[in-house]
Design goal:
The chain is 25% helix and 26% strand. By secondary structure, the protein is of the alpha+beta class.
Length: 760
């Protein structure tokens, strides 16, 4: 008896020691490969429920935690091996006197998982309580009902690295329960507390049937419908708007039936083209699908990972028994932004543009910012910079932005660059996007109070900027580097990395040099505020030398524009936007340049003979107009988004004409600019130390807007009537500022200021 007790004590001590070293990880003794889905279980007995029971929980790769059948948490938030998230939870509210069950579903899809998910080895960890995984007593089994298939088997016609199609087979038994064992390689991860709040998991409307292959099918999902035996039936559902959600299909009967649930952002014609997004007719989905196989019992089939869609097509093939579709449950998920901002004008199209942009951001923001929650689910540097600005203005919550800045800083590529998309298992080095990361920090410096973040990352900024220095050729321009130098989707094919940006006949790229000039100046400004004045002076001097080289090598007097390359053969909006924005052009040149790179009445379109901006790069175009003192032109640029309204988008697309993605948050920047440019609410000093309200109303006669700031919301109201403008500004008491209108400034002396001014 004493030897048995001693053995038990040694086992408990060993598990506990591992927990103290970041251990406490457990797994199935045979879980040596992926993909795999495991179920962990532990029963505990309590005489009474505690007031609090704090625990820390995480998994490799993902988990959903249940207590007494209630879904309590999911995670971990996307991180990296060097910053592996763990959640702090209080389990007390979910426990009951007597016996309670703690259960976790843990899965690791390995190379088939979304590309942003990293892994060491499959495992689960819950510590902080007497029943934690650092103690014996946990049981584990294989979930025999779940499997996955490579997404490329279903959706090979586009670049896709996101959600994995799942197979849920209710006819397959689960594995036998086994004692859990310590998981390998626990020390390989560096555990940190999750800095983010839990993702939302809220009920949402499933939409309605817009096409049914059998009589009565259009009653679903408001009412159950039955598919007869030995039948193949299809139901196409359309939601009012795009959503990221966990879909749960409730079924009963129909043993042996096969159900597929296919997800898509839009419908396609026989030629594979999209049109007006409400149009159904004979158009088809071209997406990926989950597969469910029924056992005749009442069940809810739900994939482990969420899906993004506006359309869902349910295909049922029954065998010898009819199957009843009882309902479709959606639980919307995403980052839990609280909307502070608002935009209401007398122009309903502008109001819709604002709303659609905010919805796009919500669909594409989760544990990281994402370019496209349907196609890639990756946090790209260029995309993320614009998405962060939307969150600053609309919610004021900087936590997801801080996560992004830190994640990119952690990545390291080619001796100094940040990864173009991170976190990710896949290398994706985009040299020019490293310059966008410097821009993120510049934006943060103006918009946020936390200067410590800037100081922490200044050494990383120096490495990024210094990486480009050896690329300067004898003419002073940056020569070609071996990485992807993405600027924009400007009409080139996705894999065309040689013609845009143009490098000329080895004479260098004016365009990438101009981007470097901008980043050098941003870096110098950050150094002056938070770092080293000598480094600031050095960066300014380097920027000035590069500017002089661009002016000498790239200016075309014949066209009155800057060329993209030293041969002066290729021209773009992009090069000339940067020339204006980063003061490569003189103020006298800037006005004429802006007139030459846009077409009046055609939004962001460029005239013939040059590469033109996508929806993404239009943000930089707007900044150039603003920098040149012509922000009053901003509303004209929005004609491009007005034109998109006619296609009934509910989220903004990736690119012009036939976009891959119908929900691409880099196109949502008008939501921030309608607040910052049109309503005119923005910072006048670093750290949002002062407020500047400078509206550009165009032909608007009424506008009420609210924008978030680190000090609290700022509210503005504008009314134009009989040649007079009535302005009301409400600001936080600790945020001084001024109103600027038609070149004059008025101090905002009171928490609420009302003025009546000449409208013209």
């Amino acid at each position: 008896m004493r030897s048995a007790a001693l053995a038990l004590l040694l086992i408990v001590s060993a598990w506990g020691a591992r927990a103290g070293e970041g251990g406490g990880w457990i797994t199935h003794p045979e879980a040596t490969s992926t993909p795999v889905v495991l179920e962990f279980s532990r029963q505990i007995t309590l005489k009474k429920t505690p007031a609090r029971l704090p625990v820390r929980v995480t998994a490799d790769n993902r988990f959903v935690l249940y207590v007494n059948g209630n879904r309590v948490a999911s995670g971990p938030s996307t991180g990296t091996i060097h910053s592996w998230r763990q959640s702090r939870l209080d389990l007390a509210p979910y426990l009951t006197p007597g016996t309670s069950e703690i259960r976790a579903v843990v899965w690791n899809y390995g190379d088939l998982a979304p590309a942003h998910q990293q892994s060491v080895a499959t495992g689960f960890r819950l510590v902080g309580a007497s029943f934690g995984t650092d103690r014996p007593g946990w049981r584990v089994r294989f979930s025999g009902r779940r499997a996955v298939v490579p997404a490329k088997q279903q959706i090979a016609w586009q670049y896709y690295v996101a959600s994995t199609p799942e197979i849920l087979d209710a006819t397959q038994p689960a594995g036998e329960w086994r004692d859990a064992v310590p998981a390998p390689a626990a020390a390989a991860r560096t555990l940190i507390d999750d800095p983010l709040p839990p993702q939302t998991y809220e009920p949402a409307a499933p939409g309605r049937v817009v096409r049914s292959s059998f009589a009565g099918g259009d009653a679903f999902p408001a009412r159950p419908v039955t598919v007869p035996a030995n039948t193949t039936a299809k139901l196409l559902l359309r939601r009012r708007t795009m959503i990221s959600a966990y879909p749960g299909l409730e079924v009963e009967g129909g043993a042996g039936a096969t159900i597929t649930m296919e997800y898509g952002e839009a419908l396609y014609d026989v030629a594979g083209r999209k049109a007006e997004r409400e149009l159904v007719e004979d158009r088809q989905l071209r997406g990926f699908h989950d597969t469910f196989i029924t056992d005749g019992k009442a069940r809810v089939f739900e994939p482990l990972w969420w899906r993004t869609f506006r359309f869902v097509e349910i295909t049922v093939t029954t065998r010898d028994a009819p199957l009843t579709l009882r309902g479709l449950q959606l639980h919307e998920t995403g980052y839990p932004f609280q909307q502070v901002a608002a935009f209401h004008s007398n122009d309903e199209e502008l109001n819709r543009i604002w709303d659609i942009g905010w919805r796009t951001l919500q669909v594409d923001a989760h544990e990281t910012f994402m370019d496209s929650s349907y196609w890639e689910q990756l946090q790209y540097t260029g995309d993320t910079r614009l998405e962060m600005l939307i969150t600053y203005a609309v919610s004021g919550d900087p936590r997801l932005a801080r996560q992004a800045i830190d994640a990119f800083a952690e990545s390291d590529a080619d001796g100094g660059l940040v990864q173009g998309a991170y976190p990710s298992r896949l290398p994706n080095v985009i040299a020019t996007f490293s310059l966008a990361w410097v821009g993120m920090l510049s934006d943060w410096s103006m918009q946020q109070l936390d200067a410590a973040l800037i100081r922490r990352h200044l050494p990383r900024v120096r490495r990024v900027l210094g990486w480009f220095e050896p690329l300067r050729n004898p003419r002073g321009l940056l020569g070609k580097n071996p990485q992807w130098n993405f600027i924009d989707w400007a009409g080139q094919k996705w894999d065309d990395r040689d013609h845009f940006p143009s490098w000329g006949n080895d004479n260098g790229s004016c365009l990438t040099t101009a981007m470097w000039v901008g980043a050098l100046r941003q870096g110098a400004a950050l150094e002056r505020l938070h770092g080293d004045a000598d480094i600031a002076a050095r960066d300014d001097a380097t920027a000035e030398r590069a500017r002089a080289a661009i002016r000498e090598q790239c200016w075309s007097a014949e066209r009155g524009l800057f060329a993209d390359d030293g041969d002066r053969q290729v021209f773009s909006q992009h090069m000339n936007v940067f020339a204006v924005l980063y003061d490569i052009a003189t103020p006298e040149e800037a006005d004429a340049i802006l007139d030459r790179i846009t077409v009046p009445g055609h939004g962001i379109d460029a005239p013939a003979g040059m590469y033109q901006s996508s929806y993404y790069f239009a943000w930089y175009l707007a900044r150039a107009y603003e920098h040149a003192g012509r922000a009053d032109r901003y509303l004209d640029l929005l004609q491009t988004w007005r034109d998109l309204l006619a296609l009934h988008y509910t989220t903004w697309p990736e690119s012009r004409d036939q976009p891959r993605s119908d929900s691409h948050a880099w196109s949502a920047h008008p939501t921030a600019d309608l607040l910052g440019v049109v309503a005119g609410i923005g910072p006048a000093a670093p750290g949002y130390a002062r407020l500047r309200v400078a509206p550009r109303l165009g032909n608007l006669t009424s506008l009420e807007a609210v924008a978030a700031t680190p000090h609290g919301p700022v509210k503005v109201s504008y009314r134009v009537d009989a040649g007079k403008l009535t302005v009301s500004v409400e600001r936080p008491a600790d945020l001084p500022g001024e109103l600027v209108w038609r070149g004059r400034a008025w101090p905002l002396d009171q928490a609420r200021t009302t003025l009546t001014l000449d409208a013209d």
